[in-house]
TrEMBL record:
One of its GO terms (cellular component) is cytoplasm. This is Phenazine biosynthesis protein PhzF like. GO terms for molecular function: isomerase activity. The lineage of its organism: Bacteria, Thermotogati, Deinococcota, Deinococci, Deinococcales. Transmembrane segments: none annotated. It comes from Deinococcus marmoris. The active site is at residue 47.
Length: 308
């Protein structure tokens, strides 16, 4: 039996067992795709990442390859798994110890190092702000948004029914590395009223070729954040994601589109992104223009095992 070391990592973790978990497996080349998918389905994590040392096209010292799986399928891109993978790549020695240099204030000050991850979406750039025993501040640059398209009336009605919303809604199909249906609501109470019909969301997702449905609302200004978000991805095996990087990237693209992007029905392009923070049981977002870097507040390894 093949033995592959794997790590359990918490991302967006302000405290132990409060973050979004991800499984990171060290791939020595012995695993077939079917084995990767089977383990991803078995282990109970929202995503599983398989890491390999080095790759072509950039310096080998700060680069690695990654494949990301949900319990049901391989993903082109996912945010929080990429953050957890970068943390393990450094801590496990998959890349050389990063070289830190002064970085811009947008990353919170201090010195930064750069990593590169190759995946199905292509090259993904990551920044590390600091490294200490078991913890790191990591930022991932989300893929550039490519298109925002409003759904037709019948599909929008079906999305509303799938969320148990009785009001008429406008829903959008958004591509930003990942592909999601995104809905903005103006009443914060709508987020708590959602009763997702997972089988309906799954069928709609399959029909439209998306990972799931993300809904966001303006947050209470007193919280210091701009939006609260919920993401449902039963098609990929994640009924509700605690903090969904792919859905968040698509939400940022839509917000830009609605806030002065190109006319409805036309592709919208933006470098805006929402910074994600986990706060109690609520998903909260900060929006910062001019960048696509999205940070993990912290990430920590919670266990190391040898199996597979």
């Amino acid at each position: 039996m093949t033995s592959n070391e794997f790590f359990v990592v918490e991302v967006f973790a302000a405290a132990e067992l409060r973050g979004n978990p991800v499984m990171i497996v060290m791939d020595d080349g012995s695993l077939e795709t079917e084995q990767m998918q089977r383990f991803a389905a078995w282990n109970g994590m929202p995503e599983t990442v398989y890491l390999r040392r080095g790759m072509g096209g950039v310096s080998q010292s700060n680069a690695y390859a990654a494949r990301i799986f949900s319990p049901r399928t391989e993903l082109v891109f996912a945010g929080h798994p990429s953050l957890g993978a970068a943390h393990v790549a450094v801590e496990a020695g998959l890349v050389e110890r990063p070289v830190f240099n002064p970085g811009p204030e947008m990353f919170g000050g201090g010195d930064l190092a750069t990593l590169w991850q190759r995946g199905a979406v292509g090259m993904v750039e990551l920044k590390l702000r600091s490294i200490s025993a078991g913890n790191a501040a990591v930022f991932v640059k989300t893929p550039a948004p490519s298109a925002v398209h409003p759904l037709g009336a019948e599909h929008a009605k079906a999305v509303a029914a799938a969320l148990s919303l009785t009001q008429k809604i406008q829903a959008y199909q958004v591509s930003a590395g990942a592909n999601w249906i995104v809905v903005r609501r103006d009443d914060p109470a709508d987020l708590e009223r959602l009763v997702p019909q997972m089988s309906v969301i799954e069928a709609l997702s399959a029909e439209l070729g998306v990972s799931g449905v993300t809904v966001y609302v303006p947050a209470d200004p007193a919280t210091g954040t701009r939006f609260e978000v919920r993401s449902f991805g039963p098609l990929i095996g994640v009924p509700e994601d605690a903090v969904c990087g792919g859905g968040t990237a698509c939400m940022a693209a839509l917000e830009h589109h609605l806030d002065g992007g190109q006319s409805a029905g036309q592709p919208s392009y933006t470098d805006s992104v929402c910074f994600v923070q986990e706060s109690e049981q609520r998903r909260s977002l900060h929006s910062t223009p001019g960048t696509r870097f999205s940070p993990a507040c912290s990430a920590r390894i919670t266990g190391v095992f040898n199996t597979l």
